[in-house]
Automatic annotation (TrEMBL):
InterPro entries (UniProt xref): DUF5318
Pfam families hit by this protein: DUF5318
Name by which UniProt lists this protein: DUF5318 domain-containing protein
């Protein structure tokens, strides 16, 4: 089991950015810039969420977790499932986990939260 703590939310920035987009202050191509690897990670390691993409309105929005820690070596900076994170923190506790929202259709992406994952 995973315990997430010390959450830093980036949702306020998300809302401000989407508001600016809605008011025409930000162009869509500046929002929808996920690269191939981020879209692939969201597709294969992420999970579908029960809300539409805030940019294109399609039901192709996914969330994916990225892990970071100096002791992870090559695994640091990679997308992982919840199950994989649970296994990893057994040997490397207190890893940083970024939750990223990605639309696999229009390539919208935004960091939602950063947390520290530890074993229960």
């Amino acid at each position: 089991m995973i315990v997430y703590r010390n959450e830093v939310s980036h949702r306020w920035r998300r809302q401000a950015l989407l508001r600016a987009f809605g008011e025409g202050e930000v162009l869509r191509e500046n929002l929808c810039d996920a690269d191939f690897l981020l879209v692939a990670a969201a597709t294969h390691h992420g999970y579908a969420v029960d809300r539409a993409c805030p940019v294109c309105g399609r039901d192709s929005l996914r969330e994916v977790r990225w892990i970071y820690h100096e002791r992870l070596g090559r695994r640091s900076g990679t997308a992982r499932s919840e199950e994989e994170i649970a296994e990893i923190i057994k040997t490397v506790p207190n890893i940083t986990v970024h939750l990223v929202e990605v639309c696999v259709e229009c390539r919208w992406n935004h960091l939602l939260t950063a947390t520290v994952a530890s074993p229960e």
